[in-house]
Predict the structure.
Amino acid sequence: MNLLKKTLFILYTKDESQHFGADAGWLDNVRWSPRVSVLFDGQGGTVLTNLQMYYADDCYTNLPAPFLLDSLFGGWWTTPDGQGVEVYNGMLVPPANHTLYARWLSANEVLNSPVDLLWTLGGGAMWFAQTNEVKQGIASMQSGSIGNNQQTQTPVPVPFTWIDNFYPGLSDTSAYEAIASGRGINQRPVWESYVAGLNPTNPLSQFIANIRVSNDIRLILWPPDIYPDRIYTVWGKTNLADTVWGPTNADSRFFKVKVEMP
């Protein structure tokens, strides 16, 4: 018994000169297309529809979406070890019956992927896995709304995303390190500009403290002031020739402002 059934497609053109017979016409083409059975092996997961029929040389459609607790579905593959060929909607169906195997990724396996792994969620937002926690026995992943959490190895680490705002188009870690370690157009090391909240591509962007007197009270001001994202300490001295800066007091005439990360 031949289980590989065949379906006959007849394409024809109506002959308008014939006025009898419901399907009178000319036979143009005949194509034999075997029906192929595809078995979906969930590899431990639940598959609601584990058998589907396709026509050979047509495309896969409506591939089922299996479920496995604490795991992320990694697609349908031609071998059970996930090392074959991944199959997805739109690919051509081969002419023989076959089995496709689900691939599963655990939460920890996803988190241990490269740090710049990107997830595309609704709306096209880029996400990456930050933490893995267990809530009521179910592993969950918390995502952050940035696409890259890498940073430089400078005295103060600078996030790659901050550098991208001023130096777009960098493609590898060494380029980010070179930018962060070098000087910007404002003649300050770029990593220092990050700490001070400056624009390294603007020569006028400088961290300068100013003294303003209001109602006989001296005020020390410094733009930009991005507290609480930075911590500021004001030091003073009476004589500029003094070698030691100390806490400011009524006798202080000279001042300096230190900015650092929290």
In short: The first strand starts at residue 6 and ends at 14. The chain has four helices and 14 strands.
